[in-house]
Amino acid sequence: MEHIYAALLLHKLGKEVNEENVKKVIAAAGQEVDETKIKSLIASLKGVDIAKELENASLVAASSSGGSEAPKEEKKVEAPKEEKKEAAAEGLSSLFG
User: pTM for the full model?
Assistant: First the structure.
């Protein structure tokens, strides 16, 4: 995971995301440098527009976190809990009544 963070940090700073720079970031953070993971990361990022991918990820996160649908679902979940509490109270009163 730290390799991905290193790539994101380099991108944010406007530096080139390459093996050498990722190694420097990982080493500066005090982590052990794993050459194979770094090579794999760089190969998988080849041809990827990181800025565009981050923008798409932000849009997906924003659309799933907001909206008027979430409170409706919460109300549906709360109703059964109230019913269970009432049923439990009735059960307890029958024990003592």
Answer: 0.59
